[in-house]
Protein backbone atom coordinates (compact mmCIF):
# COMPACT_ATOMS: atom_id res chain seq x y z
CA UNK A 1 0.00 0.00 0.00
CA UNK A 2 2.77 2.46 0.93
CA UNK A 3 4.63 1.75 -2.33
CA UNK A 4 1.46 2.52 -4.32
CA UNK A 5 1.01 5.76 -2.33
CA UNK A 6 4.63 6.77 -3.03
CA UNK A 7 4.20 6.12 -6.76
CA UNK A 8 1.01 8.20 -6.77
CA UNK A 9 2.79 11.05 -4.98
CA UNK A 10 5.68 10.79 -7.44
CA UNK A 11 3.39 10.85 -10.48
CA UNK A 12 1.45 13.82 -9.09
CA UNK A 13 4.73 15.61 -8.33
CA UNK A 14 5.98 15.07 -11.88
CA UNK A 15 2.71 16.45 -13.26
CA UNK A 16 3.12 19.55 -11.08
CA UNK A 17 6.75 19.75 -12.18
CA UNK A 18 5.72 20.00 -15.83
CA UNK A 19 3.46 22.95 -15.02
CA UNK A 20 6.15 24.62 -12.88
CA UNK A 21 8.84 24.17 -15.52
CA UNK A 22 6.66 25.50 -18.35
CA UNK A 23 5.84 28.60 -16.29
CA UNK A 24 9.58 29.09 -15.71
CA UNK A 25 10.43 29.12 -19.41
CA UNK A 26 11.32 25.47 -20.03
CA UNK A 27 10.22 23.73 -23.23
CA UNK A 28 9.43 20.12 -22.33
CA UNK A 29 10.88 17.49 -24.65
CA UNK A 30 10.39 14.21 -22.77
CA UNK A 31 8.81 12.92 -19.61
CA UNK A 32 9.94 9.63 -18.04
CA UNK A 33 12.50 8.86 -20.74
CA UNK A 34 13.63 5.24 -20.21
CA UNK A 35 16.43 3.17 -21.61
CA UNK A 36 18.63 0.30 -20.44
CA UNK A 37 20.43 2.67 -18.04
CA UNK A 38 17.29 3.79 -16.19
CA UNK A 39 14.89 6.71 -16.36
CA UNK A 40 15.11 10.49 -16.48
CA UNK A 41 12.07 12.28 -15.04
CA UNK A 42 11.99 15.26 -17.41
CA UNK A 43 14.12 16.47 -20.30
CA UNK A 44 13.62 20.06 -21.41
CA UNK A 45 15.21 23.01 -23.18
CA UNK A 46 15.77 26.36 -21.53
CA UNK A 47 17.75 29.16 -23.16
CA UNK A 48 19.17 26.67 -25.70
CA UNK A 49 20.48 24.46 -22.87
CA UNK A 50 19.42 20.82 -22.71
CA UNK A 51 18.24 20.23 -19.13
CA UNK A 52 17.87 16.87 -17.43
CA UNK A 53 15.57 17.34 -14.45
CA UNK A 54 15.23 15.05 -11.46
CA UNK A 55 11.93 15.60 -9.65
CA UNK A 56 11.67 14.77 -5.95
CA UNK A 57 8.30 15.09 -4.23
CA UNK A 58 7.75 14.85 -0.49
CA UNK A 59 4.85 15.26 1.91
CA UNK A 60 7.20 15.92 4.85
CA UNK A 61 10.86 16.49 5.61
CA UNK A 62 10.87 13.60 8.09
CA UNK A 63 13.53 11.80 6.05
CA UNK A 64 15.39 14.93 4.94
CA UNK A 65 15.06 17.30 2.05
CA UNK A 66 14.14 15.79 -1.31
CA UNK A 67 17.44 16.62 -3.03
CA UNK A 68 19.38 14.77 -0.35
CA UNK A 69 18.19 11.54 -1.97
CA UNK A 70 20.15 12.31 -5.16
CA UNK A 71 23.26 10.50 -4.01
CA UNK A 72 26.54 9.82 -5.82
CA UNK A 73 25.19 6.64 -7.44
CA UNK A 74 22.09 8.44 -8.73
CA UNK A 75 24.21 11.30 -10.08
CA UNK A 76 26.45 8.91 -12.02
CA UNK A 77 23.38 7.13 -13.36
CA UNK A 78 21.88 10.43 -14.54
CA UNK A 79 25.15 11.23 -16.31
CA UNK A 80 25.05 7.92 -18.23
CA UNK A 81 21.40 8.44 -19.10
CA UNK A 82 22.06 11.95 -20.39
CA UNK A 83 25.00 10.76 -22.47
CA UNK A 84 22.86 8.01 -24.00
CA UNK A 85 20.00 10.44 -24.72
CA UNK A 86 22.23 13.05 -26.36
CA UNK A 87 23.84 10.49 -28.66
CA UNK A 88 20.54 8.76 -29.48
CA UNK A 89 18.80 12.03 -30.37
CA UNK A 90 21.81 13.61 -32.11
CA UNK A 91 21.89 16.58 -29.74
CA UNK A 92 25.65 16.67 -29.21
CA UNK A 93 25.81 20.38 -30.09
CA UNK A 94 23.88 21.45 -26.96
CA UNK A 95 25.20 22.53 -23.60
CA UNK A 96 23.90 20.22 -20.85
CA UNK A 97 22.62 21.00 -17.39
CA UNK A 98 21.31 18.85 -14.56
CA UNK A 99 18.55 20.48 -12.51
CA UNK A 100 16.58 19.25 -9.54
CA UNK A 101 13.04 20.21 -8.65
CA UNK A 102 11.94 19.67 -5.07
CA UNK A 103 8.19 19.69 -4.52
CA UNK A 104 6.73 19.86 -1.03
CA UNK A 105 3.07 18.82 -0.85
CA UNK A 106 0.84 20.11 1.93
CA UNK A 107 -1.94 17.59 2.50
CA UNK A 108 -3.86 19.94 4.80
CA UNK A 109 -4.73 22.59 2.24
CA UNK A 110 -3.70 20.84 -1.02
CA UNK A 111 -1.08 23.51 -1.74
CA UNK A 112 2.55 22.98 -2.60
CA UNK A 113 5.88 24.74 -2.49
CA UNK A 114 8.77 24.07 -4.78
CA UNK A 115 12.48 24.69 -5.04
CA UNK A 116 13.99 24.64 -8.53
CA UNK A 117 17.75 24.10 -8.36
CA UNK A 118 19.60 24.77 -11.59
CA UNK A 119 22.99 23.06 -11.95
CA UNK A 120 22.17 20.77 -9.04
CA UNK A 121 24.65 18.16 -10.28
CA UNK A 122 28.10 18.81 -11.75
CA UNK A 123 30.24 16.44 -13.78
TrEMBL record:
Keyword Nuclease: yes
SUPFAM superfamilies (alphabetical): Restriction endonuclease-like
One example GO MF annotation: endonuclease activity
Pfam families, alphabetized: UPF0102
Keywords: Endonuclease, Hydrolase, Nuclease
Record's protein name: UPF0102 protein SAMN04488528_102349
Database matches in InterPro entries: Restrct_endonuc-II-like (IPR011335), tRNA_endonuc-like_dom_sf (IPR011856), UPF0102_YraN-like (IPR003509)
CDD domains referenced in this protein's UniProt entry, alphabetically: PoNe_Nuclease (cd20736)
UniProt similarity note: Belongs to the UPF0102 family.
Stored PANTHER family: UPF0102 PROTEIN YRAN
Organism taxonomic ancestry: Bacteria, Bacillati, Bacillota, Clostridia, Eubacteriales
